[in-house]
Specification:
The chain has 275 residues and is an alpha+beta fold. It is built from 5 helices and 20 strands. Strands 5-6-8-10-11-15-19-18 form an 8-stranded mixed β-sheet. Strands 7, 9, 12, 13, 14, 16, 17 and 20 form an 8-stranded mixed β-sheet that branches. The chain has a 4-stranded antiparallel β-sheet with strand order 1-2-3-4, with no helix packed on it. Helix 3 runs parallel beside helix 4. It is elongated and about 135 Å long.
Length: 275
């Protein structure tokens, strides 16, 4: 009896020895999912996971002889790079005074109470104009609302181009020389220009740095402004700066194609006397 039992064990051992290792391993194979949602085959070491769309991503790890060499935990998918912003359109022309003027097309939310020009738009202009020979860069926005600019960006633009900077809206603009930009806007956070037509028909051009009105008397050369008007030169008898104390000072001016240009040397409103 014992001999028969031993003989059967020997036969069983021989049968088991003849089975391929993979057949035995298949019975012991298990798939493990870790806390990161990564699945691992415990026999082959194959690794796979699923992306956000539910697609299976499969990564077996073998060497050049197709022998399993280890698992590699997949890294997080790379964040897609944001597309580069389109360059701000800019046109260059020479004005009647012989100055080379670069006029940028500044897009803002015209319905906003205050329009904001982003730093990226000015950085785009710096990249385009740093090596150009320009005298003035116009950054006026197509809105009647006050317009706010990042002060540091304006300082960088003036430094890179050596040009004066024109800021404002469709009501009026103000041009500040490169020297004045560096002196007045340095160390500031924001610059706001708020041109407006008052109920009595006068114009106000408020230039604010960090919310405080700039003393125009301290701007070297004054503040060159350009107003959008509906009168011709023949219809105007004079243009005056009305100061806070009510006194008036006559201003030299020109009117061409609906634009009245003059230079302010002090704060106040602008009154246009019609014939």
């Amino acid at each position: 009896m014992k001999k028969q039992f031993v003989a059967k064990l020997i036969v069983l051992g021989m049968v088991l020895a003849m089975l391929p290792v993979s057949a035995m391993a298949a019975q012991q194979r298990a798939v493990i999912k870790d806390e990161n949602g990564i699945y691992t085959d415990t026999v082959t070491g194959d690794v796979w996971w699923f992306d956000e769309a539910g697609n299976q991503i499969y990564r077996p790890v073998y060497d050049t002889d197709y022998d399993y060499v280890g698992t590699v935990t997949p890294s997080a998918p790379a964040t897609p790079a944001e597309p580069e912003a389109e360059p701000v359109p800019v046109e260059t022309a020479t004005n009647a005074a012989g100055q080379v003027v670069a006029t940028a097309t500044i897009t803002v939310d015209a319905s906003a109470a205050t329009a904001e020009v982003p730093a990226a738009a000015i950085e785009s202009l710096i990249a385009q104009l740093a090596d150009a020979n320009v005298d003035v860069v116009v950054l006026a926005a197509a809105t009647e609302a006050p317009v706010t600019y990042p002060a540091a960006s304006l300082v960088s633009l003036a430094a890179a181009t050596g040009a004066g900077v024109t800021v404002g809206n469709s009501v009026a603009t103000a041009t500040v020389s490169a020297e004045a930009v560096a002196a007045v806007f340095a160390n500031a956070t924001s610059v706001q220009v708020a041109p407006a037509v008052n109920e009595d028909g006068t114009f106000t051009i408020a230039l604010l740095v960090d919310g405080n009105a700039v003393d125009i008397e301290k701007i070297p050369g004054g503040l060159a402004v350009e107003l959008t008007v509906s009168v011709t030169a023949e219809q105007v008898t004079g243009v005056y700066l009305v100061k806070a104390d009510g006194t008036e000072a006559a201003l030299e001016y020109t009117i061409v194609n609906g634009k009245l240009a003059t230079t302010l040397t002090a704060n106040g409103t602008i009154r246009i006397a019609n014939a």
